[in-house]
Amino acid sequence: MLMGHALRQRFWLERLLVTNARGEHEYAEPELHACRYQGTMKRIVTTDGEERVAAGLMYCAVEVRPEDRVYPPGTSPDDEDAGKPPIHVVTHVNLMGAVDHYEVYL
Question: pTM of the predicted model, to two decimals?
Fold first, then answer.
């Protein structure tokens, strides 16, 4: 990984398991992963065309999906209000065409 040496922070990731008929989500147990996080104020256009403002940008080696819940560095899965779905995820590939890392806007 091109950025592997820079991933010194940690974040929690909860994968979406199921959404019931009432729209309530059930997530898997949180997993701890390496990342690099920086606060940023950036306007992002989501895949559905909605314009939102990202408060943080996280670089990581693990795939984060739009339906997952992310707890940025310094937060805990014990605080459900700290978890948030990503606004936008960008996949970066290396020169060989393999996935190198992900940019996750929160």
Answer: 0.85
CA distance 100 to 4: 9
Count CB atoms within 10 A of the CB of residue 19: 11
Matching residue, tokens 């403002």: 53
What is residue 98's predicted lDDT score, i.e. its pLDDT? 92
User: How many residues are present in the chain?
Assistant: 106
Place 4 in a pLDDT band, splitting at 50, 70 and 90: low
Cα gap 34→3, rounded to integer Å: 11
Q: What are phi and psi of 82, to 5 degrees?
A: -80, -20
- Cα maximum dimension of the chain: 44
Q: What is the pLDDT of residue 26?
A: 93
- C-alpha span between 72 and 36 (Å, rounded): 10
What contacts 8, CB < 8 A, 6 or more positions away?
A: 34, 36
Give CA–CA dist 49/80, Å, rounded: 27
